């Protein structure tokens, strides 16, 4: 009885081992078949690089291709060049691959959408998990979407750029059509670009210089929580800067009929403008806020019909039953006589101030709860 | 071995308890010594006689078959039904059992002592309870939530009054029969025997400004989402999040205070809503970043 039982157990073990060993080739065959299918959609699949060796991959794309690149940690550098080709280089990655993600099945034509897959020594999934610095060259008309968790991003000479980093700094130069960038703790810098701009950073500062609109509808929006905002020579017709506790400084001429909206809870707003600017000032300030102006403002009792743009579209998480934000009629208060001053004059304590300077072409709208507005001449 | 074997040695010899060297010398001695061999034969016969006499008992399995059956039955959960033995006289059995109660064996003495201790504790507890419930005049004593009222975070049950302002419901006064919460989390309750009902300690209801509730609900949802995956948040992100959250919360507190002081001023309310919106944006950003951490 016992012997037969032992024999039965032994037979079971042998069967299990047989099944295990028969599973190995089955799994291997599945892996190889998957690898074969991956090879079919990958544009390149070359052998791994040796440690320390810089690897380089390239593939042709359409001139306005959309290219995405993301890593877990590492510095990402993107340059636009005059070739209809994407070239990726890295000394840290063990493998670089291009994955065609457009729906075109015609493999003879270059892809219009490409994902760059970066593998490191861990070689996990290749989706945004690599720890590697990567350089990439893309066509000048391309749109790039670049993301890293820990690391800086530098983009230059592309048509459009989406950039995201949690802690790294983002620097974008010479973007042609639009820029959208976001960071939690890092700073954002944008220079010499045209088109629509949207920049957001929670704790980092935002610095922008020399941005022009490509069309009349190109808006310029920037927001921070505690980071400072510095804007120099912004020509977009609609500029909106919001901060909770950061300071906002804008330097440069105002666009004719432009709209400049500044919202701050505790930070100061400083506008450095040439002496020949023409604007209308609609300010909403609390008792704590001051307005200090170098310009001879003409204060009016009632603000003209607010030329403010349409209400902003509600963000995703804005409650549906959010309070209406229709502009309220200004309070009638004491009229302050027009002043021509050279030295700063503190205008206090008015809650709503409507004033003009020059012919009042541009509109400066200020909402400051605790900060100070300074209008300075340059 | 030249000396004759004594009885103990012989017995050990037959029991096989001698060492191998002694066994050899004993065997050689028995082969050469007629006296010892005769004694050995005599002892062997005695052993054989004893084995035959106790053969039945020695062959009996231990435990016995009946005991083994009972054990097996108990293990397999089969209840053994014992046949009821008819007592010859129930009255005499009753008296005999009573008399056996007063026979103080040591185990029984300990049992009686334990019973006395339990009865004494029960009596003391009953007296204490009787004394504490004596002054209560009302039919049902009050159980008042002893925890501090939570801040007016979103998700707090609110009631709207006729003016449109929302009121946060004060802590619920629970009756002894209704102490369970809907969330299933236990609420610490303080028993207050002598306090009259009218002096139930409730904090003043917090008035929510019109439109504030919707923001609070959204913030609560986002906050819950972030807290659910707080372990996924990297320390650097968490530090940045908490730093900026503190900034936004300060702004909300300041603007809310201003809006509260100036209820008819739409600008004051707008500042408050702008502060709330900043918090919503921040929470959205952090929630997105947390998802990125987890998914990649």
SSE order and pairing:
The complex is a heterodimer of chains A (378) and B (296).
Chain A: H1 2-41, E1 55-60, E2 66-73, E3 76-81, E4 85-90, E5 95-100, E6 113-119, E7 134-139, E8 143-150, E9 153-156, E10 160-165, E11 170-173, E12 178-183, E13 188-194, E14 196-201, E15 206-212, E16 219-224, E17 229-234, E18 238-243, E19 248-251, E20 259-264, E21 269-273, E22 279-285, E23 290-293, E24 298-300, E25 345-347, E26 352-357, E27 362-368, E28 372-377
Parallel strand pairs in A: 2-6, 2-8, 3-7, 3-9, 8-10, 9-11, 10-12, 11-13, 12-14, 13-15, 14-16, 15-17, 16-18, 17-19, 18-20, 19-21, 20-27, 21-28, 22-27, 23-28
Antiparallel strand pairs in A: 1-4, 4-7, 5-6, 22-26, 23-25, 24-26
Chain B: H1 7-15, H2 20-32, H3 34-53, H4 55-59, H5 65-75, H6 90-101, H7 106-132, E1 142-145, E2 158-160, E3 166-168, E4 189-192, E5 207-208, H8 212-228, H9 235-261, H10 266-295
Antiparallel strand pairs in B: 1-4, 2-3, 3-5
Helix pairs in contact in B: 1-3, 2-3, 8-10, 9-10
């Amino acid at each position: 009885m016992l012997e037969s039982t032992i024999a039965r157990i032994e037979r079971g073990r042998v069967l299990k081992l047989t099944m295990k060993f028969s599973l190995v080739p089955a799994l291997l065959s599945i892996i190889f078949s998957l690898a074969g299918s991956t090879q079919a959609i990958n544009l390149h699949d070359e052998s791994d690089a040796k440690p320390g060796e810089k690897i380089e991959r390239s593939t042709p794309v359409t001139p306005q291709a959309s290219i995405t690149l993301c890593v877990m940690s590492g510095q990402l550098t993107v340059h636009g060049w005059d070739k209809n080709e994407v070239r990726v280089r890295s000394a840290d990655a063990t493998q670089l691959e291009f994955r065609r993600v457009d729906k075109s099945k015609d493999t003879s034509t270059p892809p219009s959408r490409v994902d760059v897959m970066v593998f490191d020594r861990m070689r996990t999934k290749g989706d945004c998990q690599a720890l590697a610095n990567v350089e990439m060259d893309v066509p000048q008309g391309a749109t790039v979407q670049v993301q890293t968790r820990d690391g800086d991003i530098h983009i230059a000479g592309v048509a459009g750029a989406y950039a995201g980093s949690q802690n790294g700094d983002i620097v974008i130069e010479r973007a042609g059509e639009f820029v959208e960038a976001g960071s939690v703790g890092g700073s954002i810098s944008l220079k010499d670009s045209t088109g629509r701009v949207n920049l957001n950073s929670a704790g980092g500062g935002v610095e922008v210089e020399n941005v022009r609109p490509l069309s009349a509808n190109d808006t310029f929006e920037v927001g921070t929580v505690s980071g400072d905002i510095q804007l120099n020579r912004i020509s977009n017709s609609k500029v909106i800067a919001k901060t909770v506790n950061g300071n906002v400084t804008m330097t440069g001429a105002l666009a004719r009929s432009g709209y400049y909206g500044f919202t701050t809870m505790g930070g100061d707003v400083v506008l450095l403008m040439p002496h020949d600017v023409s604007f209308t000032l609609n300010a909403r300030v609390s008792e704590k806020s001051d307005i200090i102006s170098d310009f001879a403002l003409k204060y009016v009792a009632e603000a003209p019909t607010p030329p403010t743009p349409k209400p902003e579209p509600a963000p995703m998480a804005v409650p549906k039953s959010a309070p209406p934000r229709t502009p309220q009629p200004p309070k009638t208060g004491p009229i302050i006589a027009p002043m021509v001053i050279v030295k700063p004059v503190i205008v206090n304590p008015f809650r709503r101030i409507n004033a003009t300077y020059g012919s009042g072409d541009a509109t400066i709208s200020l909402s400051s709860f605790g900060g100070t507005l300074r209008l300075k001449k340059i | 071995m030249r000396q004759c074997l004594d009885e103990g040695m012989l017995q050990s010899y037959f029991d096989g308890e001698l060492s191998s060297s002694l066994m050899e010398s004993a065997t050689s001695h028995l082969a050469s010594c007629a006296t010892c061999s005769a004694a050995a034969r005599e002892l062997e016969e005695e052993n054989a006689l004893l084995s035959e006499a106790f053969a039945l008992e020695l062959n009996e399995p231990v435990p016995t078959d009946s005991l083994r059956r009972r054990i097996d039955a108990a293990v397999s959960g089969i209840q053994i039904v014992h046949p009821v033995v008819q007592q010859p006289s129930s009255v005499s059995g009753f008296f005999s059992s009573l008399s056996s109660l007063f026979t103080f064996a040591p185990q029984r003495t300990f049992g009686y002592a334990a019973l006395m201790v339990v009865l004494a504790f029960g009596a003391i507890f009953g007296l204490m309870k009787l004394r504490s419930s004596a002054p209560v005049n009302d039919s049902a004593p009050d159980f008042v939530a002893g925890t501090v009222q939570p801040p007016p975070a979103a998700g707090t049950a609110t009631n709207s009054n006729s003016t449109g302002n929302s009121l946060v419901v004060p802590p619920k006064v629970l009756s002894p029969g209704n102490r369970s919460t809907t969330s299933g989390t236990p609420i610490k309750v303080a028993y207050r025997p002598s306090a009259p009902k009218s002096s139930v300690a409730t904090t003043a209801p917090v008035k929510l400004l019109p439109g504030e509730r919707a923001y609070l609900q959204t913030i609560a949802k986002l906050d819950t989402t972030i807290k659910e995956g707080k372990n996924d948040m990297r320390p650097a992100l968490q530090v940045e999040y908490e730093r900026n959250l503190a900034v936004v919360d300060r702004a909300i507190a300041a603007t809310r205070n201003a809006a509260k002081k100036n209820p008819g001023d739409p600008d004051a309310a707008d500042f408050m809503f702008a502060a709330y919106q900043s918090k919503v944006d921040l929470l959205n950003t952090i929630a997105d970043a947390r998802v990125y951490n987890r998914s990649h």
